[in-house]
Design a protein that fits this description.
11 strands; globular; seven-stranded mixed sheet; four-stranded mixed sheet; 18% strand
Length: 266
């Protein structure tokens, strides 16, 4: 990529391409699942981008073609593996999951964030995509909000503003997997492209945004979010999940899912 400045980390690759910062999740062996270390790196990268006047848009993607983000790291969350690097927040914190650290920070970003989705986009990964301002994807991408299966509430505060109440309830209540065309048809995605085009199209969109007044873009984002986001709903979802997480039913459901997905028993 011409004009790219690249700063690599084991878990997150950061590239500055003119006025657009590209963040590439880099845990391919886990489908870029969010552990505390990766989540904190994403949050710190957004902090840095916001403080740099040269950055006017952010693109988030997953390395390779198999996954954007598979969600929260199940092995870490179930206790099979301990948190590495950054210390996990206290259980009473509003950010009591690794996914919440990244999702809440991206959602609060003052500059536009574009999700370039390639492949799996599940759970906390789907929430990360919802936290972005614009979502584009490849035709092979798949989506899932599995909270009801795991005994948690996932996406209930943010999905309805994109796809409408009835569709959001269907996707959340059933926790079923759905494909890119359905995501496009219901308004979750803005565009679907060929796999090799997704990141370049996201960067192209970022550059187009960057050519406009940075102040006007930021203020437009602030007004649109004020018009469509319901702070009470976001707070309510967080409070409910604090209560549900760790209950006997939730533990049993999550442990069963962890064993099914990873083959390892908590």
């Amino acid at each position: 990529m011409s004009g790219a400045k690249k700063l690599s980390d084991e878990l997150l690759i950061i590239e500055q391409i003119e006025h657009v910062q590209l963040l590439t999740l880099n845990r391919p062996d886990r489908h870029h699942a969010l552990n505390y270390s990766l989540a904190n790196l994403i949050a710190k990268a957004v902090d840095t981008a916001e403080s740099d006047d040269n950055v006017r848009a952010i693109v988030i993607t997953g390395n390779g073609e198999r996954a954007f983000c598979a969600g929260q790291d199940m092995l870490e969350m179930s206790g099979i593996e301990s948190s590495a690097g950054d210390v996990a927040p206290a259980p009473t914190s509003s950010k009591s999951s690794s996914a919440a650290i990244a999702v809440e920070r991206v959602a609060a970003a003052k500059i536009p964030v574009i999700a370039a989705i390639n492949g799996i986009c599940y759970g906390g990964g789907a929430l990360l995509a919802l936290a972005c301002d614009i979502r584009i994807a490849n035709g092979l991408s798949t989506y899932r909000f599995p909270g009801a299966e795991y005994g948690l509430v996932v996406g209930a505060a943010s999905l309805p503003r994109l796809v409408g109440t009835s569709k959001a309830k269907e996707l959340i209540y059933t926790a079923r997997k759905f494909a890119a065309q359905e995501a496009l048809d219901c308004g979750l995605l803005s565009h679907v492209y060929e796999t090799e085009e997704v990141v370049s199209k996201a960067l192209e969109l970022g550059h187009q945004i960057a050519r406009n007044s940075p102040v006007a873009v930021r203020e437009s984002k602030r007004v649109i979010d004020a018009a469509t986001l319901v702070a009470h709903a976001e707070q309510l979802e967080g409070e409910i999940n604090q209560r549900l997480r760790g209950s006997a039913e939730q533990k049993a459901r999550f442990n069963e899912a962890t064993t099914r997905v990873t083959g390892k028993k908590p």
